[in-house]
Amino acid sequence: MILKIKKLNPDARLPEYAHPGDAGFDLFAPQAFTLAPGERAGIPSGVAIEIPEGYVGLIWDKSGLSIKNGLKTLGGVLDAGYRGEIMIGMTNLSTEPYTFEKGHKIAQMLVQKVERVEIEEIEDLSQTERGAGGLGSTGK
User: Fold this and answer.
1) Residues 42, 60, 16, 94, CA torsion sign
2) Across the strands, what pairs with 43?
3) Quick count: other Cβ atoms within 10 Å of Cβ 80?
4) Where are the domains of the chain?
5) Alpha-carbon gap, residue 59 to 65, rounded angstroms
6) What CATH class is the domain 4-113?
7) 58, 50, 61: which is closest to 76 by C-alpha?
8) Beta carbons within 8 Å of 77's beta carbon, 6+ residues apart
9) Do 94 and 37 contact (CB within 8 A), yes or no?
10) Per-residue model confidence as pLDDT tens digits over 61-101
């Protein structure tokens, strides 16, 4: 698959895979940006992507940023029809400000096939052993 990418900011860095076999490619900061403790913001990537029909782009944390610095992406689903700038929703769960310098990794994106489903309303769902059990129902 070829993924078409347009730079919206001349300082933007094109997404790239860090290692062969990686599931996600990295998205980078086109300019410096500081996220204060407890702050939530949309961080621009400086790029727009043309995701092929039948696929979706999913934004995920960089594990090092989340584990070492308490930075959490707020999810992100980029549909095939979207052509705007990729914005990375992020919050700083730590007690320290974090500065993304220009060119630093912000998040990663996976491009995955989408299965389209038909929605049907019914009166009852089929029974299973688990049923409605959730939120710790299987124990520790």
Assistant:
1) positive
2) 88
3) 16
4) 4-113
5) 14
6) mainly beta
7) 58
8) 56, 57, 58, 59
9) yes
10) 999 999 999 999 998 999 999 999 999 999 999 999 999 99
